[in-house]
Each structure stands twice: as structure tokens, then as C-alpha cells.
């Protein structure tokens, strides 16, 4: 086997839970292959550089192996190698998500003190 459909490979490599989700991501332009937007029926070959955007983040991977069947996670991880730049970017995004989770939004309507703080933050001056 020298090539596999894009949606099958993404599913076999466990980037998506179903082939339908993989195909839908291709249609939405979330998958690029060698800097070209990929369609679900596009062939994936060993050595291709893929950029995959899913709920886990943005992955930049090099295809190392081909498979059209979904197997264990260890087998799926052997199908590709993530670039170092991608690993760093995903770690940074994860750190930012954790920082945002610590930020607590106030509940309810702002009181007078909160409104004044918001106005100061926006650069507005209230009163004389």
C-alpha cells in the first residue's frame, strides 16, 4: 500500500473519533497537506506534512506509516511524528487555557464599584 484516503488515515491515526468527523474537518478546511487544503479523498503518502486542527489543538505531523484500519493507540502513534514546533505551540496553548481557567468571571450584574473599575480599565473618566 503506497497511499490511503485522508479521512481513513486521520481516523486510523486517532485524530478523530469517526471517519465522518475526519471528512467534515477536511470539508471545513481544518486539514492541510503539504500546505494545500486537503479533501477527504486526497491520498496520504509517507513523508507528507499534515497540519491537523481538532479539539485537541493544532498538530503539525509528518506521516511515517500508512494504515486504513483503526488499531491500538500505540500503533496509531507510530503512524506519525509531531514536529518540535507543534509540541511547543500546543504546550503554550495548554498553559494559556489553564491560566484562563483560573480567571474567574463575576456572576450577576456589576455593582457601582465594579462599574467604576470597568470604566477605568476602558480609559473612561467618570465624574469631575
TrEMBL record:
Alphabetical keyword list: DNA-binding, RNA-binding
Pfam families xref list: S4
CDD domains: S4
PROSITE patterns: S4
InterPro entries (UniProt xref): HSP15, S4_RNA-bd, S4_RNA-bd_sf
Signal sequence coordinates: none
Domain RNA-binding S4 residue range list: 4-49
GO MF annotation terms: DNA binding; ribosomal large subunit binding; single-stranded RNA binding
GO biological process: cellular response to heat
Protein family according to the UniProt entry: Belongs to the HSP15 family.
Record's protein name: RNA-binding S4 domain protein
Organism: Granulicella mallensis (strain ATCC BAA-1857 / DSM 23137 / MP5ACTX8)
Amino acid at each position: 500500500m503506497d497511499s490511503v484516503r485522508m479521512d481513513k488515515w486521520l481516523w486510523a491515526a486517532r485524530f478523530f473519533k469517526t471517519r465522518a468527523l475526519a471528512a467534515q474537518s477536511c470539508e471545513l478546511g481544518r486539514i492541510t497537506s503539504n500546505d494545500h487544503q486537503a479533501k477527504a479523498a486526497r491520498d496520504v503518502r509517507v513523508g507528507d506534512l499534515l497540519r491537523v486542527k481538532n479539539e485537541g489543538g493544532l498538530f503539525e505531523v509528518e506521516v511515517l506509516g500508512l494504515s486504513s484500519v483503526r488499531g491500538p493507540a500505540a500503533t496509531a502513534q507510530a503512524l506519525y511524528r509531531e514536529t518540535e514546533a507543534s509540541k511547543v505551540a500546543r504546550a503554550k496553548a495548554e498553559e494559556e487555557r489553564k491560566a484562563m481557567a483560573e480567571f474567574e468571571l463575576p456572576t450577576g450584574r456589576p455593582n457601582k464599584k465594579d462599574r467604576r473599575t470597568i470604566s477605568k480599565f476602558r480609559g473612561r473618566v467618570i465624574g469631575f
